[in-house]
Specification:
CATH class: Alpha Beta
Shape: globular
CATH architecture: 3-Layer(aba) Sandwich
Bound molecules: adenosine-5'-triphosphate, magnesium ion
Low-confidence stretches: none
Number of helices: 7
Strand order of the largest sheet: 6-7-8-3-9-10
CATH superfamily: P-loop containing nucleotide triphosphate hydrolases
Helix content: 25-40%
Strand content: 25-35%
Mean pLDDT: 93
Structural class: alpha/beta
Oligomer: single chain
Distance between the termini: 22 Å
Order of helices and strands: EEEHEEHEHHHEHEHEE
């Protein structure tokens, strides 16, 4: 099922001295149940494009549609709270919350009570392959791979159907990279997420159902 669609999307950064056309006419349809990899040289526009899919900004030209609705008329804060989760290389976990509380956070945001949220969070933490003992640990006490799993558990907890990840495996050793990719793949194939991952790693891209190649702000294929 189509969940996200980019139609002739452009994005320009306006700096003091110049206009940088980072994304130049990208059209693509993303469906739930698939994992997509976005690859391309540094500066080719990958992160910019992802930030448009995340609703962090609007295209300067063209449109992004979420389930057929134009992002420009949506409440983009609710979009990110309810439908799409972004996972960054630096994880963006809440440092003052325990692992379990990090995952409870989006669940409680939706109005679920504490006990129920705690239970769901514990289930998701188990699902991403973390040991029970991390429940009460703070992120900085966890390894990079563990933190990344936790960030993915939190993205799954948000109740949306879209996971957007910018270099989620960038800092990890190759075994952990593969683990994280398998986890994202499982989210797509068994939990029906649309997973969109930017990666420089060909082994990660090889695991995707579809690979989008960007060059100079455009998709080439
Ligand atoms: N905040 C900004 N202000 C001005 N120009 C920017 C800004 N962010 C990115 N750019 C420019 O937009 C273009 C695309 O950048 P983007 O970050 O999307 O590339 P990328 O493909 O994600 O690269 P990388 O693989 O290095 O992360 C580049 O030319 C970059 O210099
Ligand atoms: Mg980038």
């Amino acid at each position: 099922m189509e969940i996200l669609r980019a139609e002739q999307v452009h994005y320009s950064y306006q700096t003091k001295y110049q206009t940088i056309e980072a994304v130049r006419g990208v059209s693509y349809s993303f469906e739930t149940g698939n994992m997509y990899a976005i690859v391309g040289e540094s500066g080719s526009g990958k992160s910019t494009f992802l930030s448009l899919l995340a609703g962090l900004d609007l295209p300067t030209k063209g449109n992004v549609y979420v389930e057929g609705e134009d992002m420009a008329v949506l409440n983009r804060d609710s979009y990110r709270r309810e439908k799409a989760s972004v996972v960054y290389q630096s994880f963006n976990l809440f440092p003052l919350l325990t692992a379990q509380e990090n995952v409870m956070f989006p669940i409680e945001l939706k109005g679920t009570g504490k006990r129920e949220a705690a239970k769901k969070a514990a289930e998701l933490i188990e699902r991403v392959g973390l040991r029970e003992q991390v429940l009460y640990q703070f992120p900085q006490m966890m390894s990079g791979g563990e933190q990344q799993r936790l960030a993915i558990a939190r993205a799954m907890a948000a109740g949306g159907k879209i996971i957007l990840a910018d270099e989620p495996t960038g800092n990890l050793d190759s075994e952990n990279q593969q683990n994280i990719v398998q986890l994202l793949k499982e989210a797509a194939h068994t939990m029906e997420f649309a997973v969109i991952v930017i990666t420089h790693n060909p082994e990660v891209a090889a695991e995707a159902d579809y690979v989008l190649r960007m060059r100079d702000g455009k998709l080439i294929n």
